[in-house]
Amino acid sequence: MKVHYDLNTFNAKKPVITIGVFDGVHLGHKKVITSLLNISKNEQGESVIVTLWPHPRLVLSDEIETLRLLNTLEEKEILLEKQNIDHLVILPFTKEFSKKSACKFTEEILVNKLHVKHLLIGHDHHFGKDRAGDFKDLKDCAERYHFTLTRVNPEKTNGASISSTKIRNHLLEGNLEKANEYLGYEYFIRGKVIGGNRIGKKIGFPTANIEISDSYKLIPRDGVYAVATRIGQHLYKGMLNIGKRPTIDKHGYRKTIEVHLFEFNENIYNKTISIHFIKRIRDEEKFDNVDQLVEQLKKDKATALKILS
């Protein structure tokens, strides 16, 4: 997959293009991508995904302090790389860019810069200023600029349509199974291992404290999870806690993300690792003393090992 941050570097044979934010690269997105690959093969062209960054809501929304996304740009590139597309075009999204009309966007970007031969869109795709452009506008543009157009029906699971918003809500509510079902893979976070207070090591459950550099990255609901952690090329079983550690930190000022890896004893400070959420075990709890916490951690480990086996 060739990644283009500059439209001047783009060159493709008979470009078959789809446009979208693709937050999560979930099963609904993958249905569009499968159609994209099939059409590009039939047309003997090359598959192209055009995405916007930053996410338009990070630029235009009043809720920027609370908005959370399923993917960072790096994670999105990792997920799209696995889809075997030929080109990923990343358009910088700004307030000025948002003022382009649907027609202007089609002419300036899709036709003049990317030389679109076929355009594929999702069922609810709107584009251009105030998202005013719809399928009818695109049909008019297709006729005017001589490219073909396809609209893909929504992907559904058990009768329910899949969307990034639904997945975000499921993760925030602790409904990990439903979120992963809609994603088609285990939700993951990537972060750097930073130093902690080493209390976990003292009680027999050493943890790696994870720092997420992107403030907009969605962190699932507080609680204990069975996880698989990738460090380099290796995958390790473990359990993870998200929360304020009420038993140890009486004040609970700061939320932490801590992962305990089973059968692991290496120094991984400052390394970037990926943590994949397999199943939610329980809510975070406050215990009367550390001994009670340790007993619960032993139970959590047994539960996590059973899940991960």
- Secondary-structure element string: EEHEHHEHHEHEEEHHEHEEEEEH
Instruction: Output the radius of gyration.
Output: 22 Å
**Oligomer classification:** single chain
Which fold does the CATH topology of the largest domain refer to?
A: Rossmann fold
Supply the CATH class of the largest domain. Alpha Beta
For the report, how would you describe the main beta sheet? 6 strands, parallel
Helix content: 25-40%
Number of strands: 14
Give me the secondary-structure category.
alpha/beta
Strand order of the largest sheet: 1-4-3-2-5-6
The CATH superfamily title of the largest domain: HUPs
So what's the overall shape? Answer: elongated
CATH hierarchy: architecture of the largest domain: 3-Layer(aba) Sandwich
Distance between the termini: 34 Å
The total number of structural domains is 2
**Helical region count?**
10
Which runs of at least 5 residues are low in confidence (pLDDT < 50)?
A: none
Strand content: 25-35%
Mean pLDDT reading: 91
Give a quick set of tags describing it.
single chain, 309 residues, alpha/beta, Rossmann fold, Elongation Factor Tu (Ef-tu), domain 3, 6-stranded parallel sheet, 10 helices, 14 strands
